């Protein structure tokens, strides 16, 4: 049996992974609590919760696990980060939704929204930079790219699909969804300069 590598480098990557995933779940909770609209995937998770019951975090876990089944024909391989993502993000999201008070005035709603988007970008850089496996939803995009689609087209098709279904099921799409779409890429790029992905 091969011993597990517990070098400082691996320890650092594990801390980075689990901190990033926990903050990612809290960031989702902030955006949902803002009631101004979340990311396309979170509109989908919220729509499932509204329409079918169970908590948003539970749906994050269920969808993450289901999405990994799609990895099989796409020939994607999960890592520790992938498996951890499925469970920890959903648990942290539900904890955040339970702990955070609901803002009832628009300045606080905007504070929640902007804080959530900033935190999600930072959390993304942390967990992706750990290089312990992509998130389950990211794996669909990379699998489609491997089949010949461009990154832009693959991401657009996935996100417009889950956004549309989530909105039809009762998820909250709005100005926050648009702001997320416009800001998340540049923010991840900025954070990655301070916390390199490699």
Automatic annotation (TrEMBL):
Keyword Transmembrane helix: yes
Spans through the membrane: 14-32, 52-72, 79-98, 110-128, 164-188
Keyword Membrane (UniProt): yes
Pfam families, alphabetized: DUF6198
InterPro entries reported for this sequence: YczE/YyaS-like
Keywords in alphabetical order: Membrane, Transmembrane, Transmembrane helix
PANTHER family reported in the protein's UniProt record: INTEGRAL MEMBRANE PROTEIN, INTEGRAL MEMBRANE PROTEIN-RELATED
Protein name as catalogued: Putative membrane protein YczE
Organism for this UniProt entry: Nonomuraea soli
Lineage of the organism: Bacteria, Bacillati, Actinomycetota, Actinomycetes, Streptosporangiales
């Amino acid at each position: 049996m091969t011993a597990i590598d517990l070098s400082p480098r691996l320890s650092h990557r594990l801390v980075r992974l689990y901190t990033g995933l926990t903050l990612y779940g809290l960031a989702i909770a902030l955006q949902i609590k803002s009631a101004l609209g979340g990311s396309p995937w979170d509109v989908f998770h919220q729509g499932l919760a509204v329409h079918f019951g169970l908590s948003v975090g539970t749906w994050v876990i269920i969808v993450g696990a289901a999405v990994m089944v799609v990895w099989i024909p796409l020939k994607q391989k999960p890592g520790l980060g992938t498996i951890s993502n499925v469970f920890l993000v959903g648990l942290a999201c539900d904890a955040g939704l339970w702990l955070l008070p609901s803002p009832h005035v628009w300045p606080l709603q905007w504070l929640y929204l902007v804080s959530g988007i900033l935190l999600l970008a930072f959390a993304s850089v942390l967990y992706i930079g750990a290089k312990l496996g992509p998130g389950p939803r990211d794996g669909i995009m990379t699998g489609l790219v491997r089949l010949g689609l461009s990154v832009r087209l693959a991401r657009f098709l996935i996100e417009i699909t889950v956004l549309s279904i989530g909105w039809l099921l009762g998820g909250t799409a709005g100005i926050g969804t648009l702001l997320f779409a416009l800001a998340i890429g540049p923010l991840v790029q900025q954070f990655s300069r301070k916390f390199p992905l490699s």
